Amino acid sequence: MSSSSGRTVGEIVLDVRNISLRFGGVKALTDISFDVREHEVRSIIGPNGAGKSSMLNCINGVYTPQEGRITFRGQTFGHMNSRQVAEMGVARTFQNLALFKGMSVLDNIMSGRNLRMKSNLFQQAFRNPWWSRADREEIEHREVVERIIDFLEIQAYRKVPVGRLPYGLQKRVDLGRALAMEPQVLLLDEPMAGMNLEEKQDMSRFILDVNDEYGTTIVLIEHDMGVVMDISDRVVVLDYGRKIGDGTPAEVRSNPEVISAYLGTSH
């Protein structure tokens, strides 16, 4: 199946059905349903407070919705914790960077390999001939990380503490750490927030390259409508926790309810 962008997309990999989420008496999400197809770039947009990050938090196990279900590759769950979701192949970046600022770029991205490290910390800490399997694993993990560093064009910063890097490069490291998990589905929470135009162009290119070269399915929250319309296959629109639009960028752009939510008028 070909998407509006010309990319070949596959079967439904993630199916969100009738999700409702409340905090006390406050409704964050009300009866939200949408699906994500394999290999597509699926964007979630909406004004501030629309419920976009809450939706991602439901998908990756941070929040437990009171109603609804989420199906990932045929497996339906009401509640999974974040580690279980990650082990199923879903990785996440965060709107507010959660990087280890005093650690190097290399070590930050390496931390994304933790789920895949089978040998225990004792084995890694006390190297000797009996722990050759641990040595082999670490070499393999480092090779994956070095490829990601090359892919994201941050070779020159490998040993630099992340806290010393410009904001746009820190965002790139955050993407690299998520890629180190080798996810099937990558959830990106405002990856371009706070960036200048050039940084946004770079990040857009990397997102499309991740989708194309790694074959990773992308679910993206982003405020920049120009970026969303340029790189998305389909867009779901939330407003005050309700879904008001869903379709191709062209369909969403011409939806009167979406226009009203963003511009305050349907004209």
UniProtKB/TrEMBL annotation:
InterPro entries named among the record's database cross-references: AAA+_ATPase (IPR003593), ABC_AA/LPS_Transport (IPR051120), ABC_transporter-like_ATP-bd (IPR003439), BCA_ABC_TP_C (IPR032823), P-loop_NTPase (IPR027417)
UniProtKB keywords: ATP-binding, Cell membrane, Membrane, Nucleotide-binding, Transport
Record-linked Pfam families: ABC_tran, BCA_ABC_TP_C
Any single Gene Ontology cellular-component annotation: plasma membrane
Gene Ontology MF: a single term: ATP hydrolysis activity
Signal sequence bounds: none
Family matches, as CDD domains: ABC_Mj1267_LivG_branched (cd03219)
Entries under PROSITE patterns matching the protein: ABC_TRANSPORTER_2
Domain of life: Bacteria
PANTHER family: ABC TRANSPORTER ATP-BINDING PROTEIN, CONSERVED COMPONENT OF ABC TRANSPORTER FOR NATURAL AMINO ACIDS-RELATED
Name under which the protein is recorded: Branched-chain amino acid transport ATP-binding protein LivG
Source organism of the structure: Piscinibacter sakaiensis
